[in-house]
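Narrative of activities, Objective 1.

The group set out to show that a structural description can be obtained from nothing but a protein's sequence at a throughput compatible with the screening campaign. Below is one input-output pair from the validation batch, recorded exactly as produced.
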Amino acid sequence: MKILMIGFWLTLWASAVMADLTVVQSLETTAMPAEPGKSSSMTMKMKGQKARIDFTGMPISSIIDLKSKKLFFLDHKQKQVMVMPLDLMQSMLAPSAPGATNAPNKSAIKKTGNVQTINGYACEEYAGSASADMTIRCWMADVPEAREMEPFRAYAQDAFNATSFGGMAAMKGLVVRSDSTVLTNDKPVTSRTELKSLSKAPIDDGVFSLPADYTVMGMPSPAAP
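Output recorded for this entry:
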C-alpha cells in the first residue's frame, strides 16, 4: 500500500487541472516481504475543484473536494464512506512520507539533463534520493494540460514541503513515468508508475457524488491518553 500511495501522490501532485481531465496510470511493484509483486492501474478523474481516484482490483475509491476541503474514502465492499478534513490528511501525510525526517524544502532530487521520449512525450529526467532508504527517478513532460495544474498541486505540495520532497515544488509538468526503490526490512522494493492515457473528454458530475446507499462516517476520535 505504501508503494501505491507514492505513485498516487506523485500523480496527484502533477496531474490536477481546472478543466475536465482523465489520467490513467499503470502501477507495478516487485515482491515485498511476505507479499507477491502487484500490477494494477489508477484512474484519476478531475473536474474543477473535485477529483476521484480508482484502482483496479481494489474495492476502494477516493474523492477530493477542494471547495469543501474534505477527502472522502469509499469502501465499496462495506458500502461505507469515511470523511476526513484535507488539513488533517496533510498533517498525517507529511510525517509518513518518505524522507519526512530530512530537512524540509531541501530536495536531493535534481534534473539530470537527460531527455527521453516516453509514450510520445518528450520528458526531462529527475533523479536522486528522498531519504537513506529511498531513491527515485521521474520523467516530466511539458504539455498544455500541465500548465493548468495548480489547485491540487498546491494541496499535495503542502504535505511534501515537510519532507525532502519539498524541492519538487519547482518541478513543473506532467509525470509520465516514475521509478522508486524503498528498503523494506532491508530488502529493496521497486515500484513504477507510467502514464497510459490522458483525456479531456467531459466528465459527468455524478462521478463525484457519494452513493446514496453508503453509510457516511466521520474520522474516529483518537483514544484518550
